Amino acid sequence: MEFVKGHGTENDFVVLPDLDDQLDLTVARVQALCDRQRGLGADGVLRVVRSDGESGGKWFMDYRNADGSIAEMCGNGLRVFARYLVDAGHQPQGEFVVATRAGDRTVVTHPDGSVTNDMGPARVTGTSIAAVDGAGIGGFAVDVGNPHLACVTDVPVESFDLTVPPGYDPVVFPHGVNVELINTIGDNALRMRVHERGVGETRSCGTGTVASVASWLAGQGRTTGSATVDVLGGQVYVTIEPMTSTLTGPAVLVARGELDKSWWDALA
Ligand SMILES: N[C@@H](CCC[C@H](N)C(=O)O)C(=O)O
């Protein structure tokens, strides 16, 4: 069984081509694939499935977090997914549509290896508080298809301990939440760290960067704008408009290989 390893600003993924939707991708298999000691190591798995195109997309991105849970959307993963499709010859370079659990998303692959995703609307739904290092930090709840609590703070984001999952209000976020801590570092320039639902701290989160810019704008009473977002693994560029948002950043394919069949079968 073929796999590809890739990353988008060091948010890393195992890509599993399963064009005819044959794989039984159990929680145990996702956990083992993502484990950095007993598997390949990744923040998540991207299963590539050919879709019937009825929803507008010819491809379905089946995204799983490292703990085996299913999430609606993954922004960095979508760029890697698009790069894989072009690299494998399944799509010509340029614009095409990928179906996700959050809806159809248009992607544009660029010759320099970067990808621009249409991320759909970033909806600011209210305010809430994250508990980090024993202190409460206020932020905005932002729905980017998946849930975020994006907190702009004056405390340098480098100073937080994200080895401990941030606390959050389960009434506001009944299905868990991704928590972003954000500093303003210049004109239209942010720095972000993230604790991802189903993973832990990661070096980047694409939907989290979109939520961060939406939250930063909401704090100024704005609903449109753009910013660069520095993350531990690099930099992305986000635009927010009333009806949609975009995310541009690198997508890197690192390795290709074959999973050992007896290892895979033993995990069923
Ligand atoms: N890293 C992703 C987000 C993956 C899903 C997230 N952990 C969740 O459970 O919602 C991204 O780049 O957006």
SSE topology sketch:
Elements: E1 2-8, E2 11-17, H1 27-34, E3 44-50, E4 59-65, H2 75-87, E5 95-100, E6 103-109, E7 114-118, E8 123-132, E9 135-143, E10 147-152, E11 178-186, E12 189-196, E13 200-202, H3 206-218, E14 225-231, E15 234-240, E16 245-250, E17 252-258, H4 261-266
Parallel strand pairs: 2-3, 4-5, 10-11, 12-14
Antiparallel strand pairs: 1-2, 1-17, 3-4, 5-6, 6-7, 7-16, 8-9, 9-10, 11-12, 12-13, 14-15, 15-16
Bound molecules: the ligand N[C@@H](CCC[C@H](N)C(=O)O)C(=O)O.
Structure description:
The chain is mainly beta and 268 residues long. The protein folds into two domains: 2-119 and 251-266, Diaminopimelate Epimerase, Chain A, domain 1 (Roll), CATH 3.10.310.10; 123-243, Diaminopimelate Epimerase, Chain A, domain 1, CATH 3.10.310.10. 15% of the residues lie in helices and 44% in strands. It has four helices and 17 strands. The chain has a 17-stranded mixed beta sheet that branches. Strand 5 and strand 6 (103-109) form a beta hairpin. The longest helix has 13 residues, at 75-87. The chain is globular and about 50 Å long. The mean pLDDT is 97. The protein binds the ligand N[C@@H](CCC[C@H](N)C(=O)O)C(=O)O.
